[in-house]
Amino acid sequence: MGVGKSSVGRLLAERLGVGYRDTDEDIVAAEGRTIAEIFVDEGESAFRELEKNAVRAALSGHEGVLALGGGAVLDAGTRALLAGQRVVYLSMDVEEAVRRTGLNAARPLLAVNPRKQWRDLMEARRHLYEEAATVVVATDGRTPEEVTQAALDALELKEA
């Protein structure tokens, strides 16, 4: 959350000369409501099912840069689909998350005690992000342009 996946994803796609797609945006478009509304109306498990299906569809129908929501890697099937793909894990620490997002209530998983919730989420997920990742790029104190260049360098990709 707030790591810059959308900004960096768009920049990567532009610099590589490929399309950009975000599975969170796909879900919002298909459902006609925000992710926060889906969480409130149907709960996290219903959202995770939508997310799993959105990732599967995007991986089979999109050849450019694909941004995934932070919980996408919770599903073992999704992690299996990511195997063999170039996956960039954009990492940051809690202080950077506070600076970027304010850890506000618009983030459904951070509605109560956001700092603790963020730390708990990262403790539970970090190993899954690392398992799925081809490379890890720290975003702390970096601009989206700097993160994009670091991702290109780490993946040893050339711009279009």
SSE inventory with pairings:
Layout: H1 5-16, E1 20-22, H2 23-31, H3 35-42, H4 44-61, E2 65-67, H5 76-82, E3 88-91, H6 94-101, H7 114-132, E4 135-138, H8 144-155
Parallel strand pairs: 1-2, 3-4
If you had to describe this structure to a student in words, what would you say it looks like?
With 160 residues, this protein is mainly alpha-helical. Helices cover 58% and strands 9% of the residues. It is built from eight helices and four strands. Strands 1-2 form a two-stranded parallel sheet. The longest helix has 19 residues, at 114-132. The chain is globular, with a radius of gyration of 15 Å.
Q: Runs with pLDDT <50, length 5+?
A: none
Main sheet makeup: 2 strands, parallel
Strand percent estimate: 5-15%
Side-by-side strand order of the widest sheet: 1-2
Approximately how much helix is present in the residues? Answer: 55-70%
Enumerate how many helices there are, as a single number. 8
- How many beta-strand elements? 4
Spatial shape: globular
Distance between the ends = 29 Å
Q: Report the C-alpha radius of gyration, rounded.
A: 15 Å
Mean pLDDT: 87
Helix/strand/pairing category: mainly alpha
Order of helices and strands: HEHHHEHEHHEH
Summary keywords:
160 residues, mainly alpha, two-stranded parallel ribbon, 4 strands
How would you summarize what this structure contains?
With 160 residues, the chain is mainly alpha-helical. It has helices spanning 5-16, 23-31, 35-42, 44-61, 76-82, 94-101, 114-132, 144-155, and strands at residues 20-22, 65-67, 88-91, 135-138. The chain is globular.
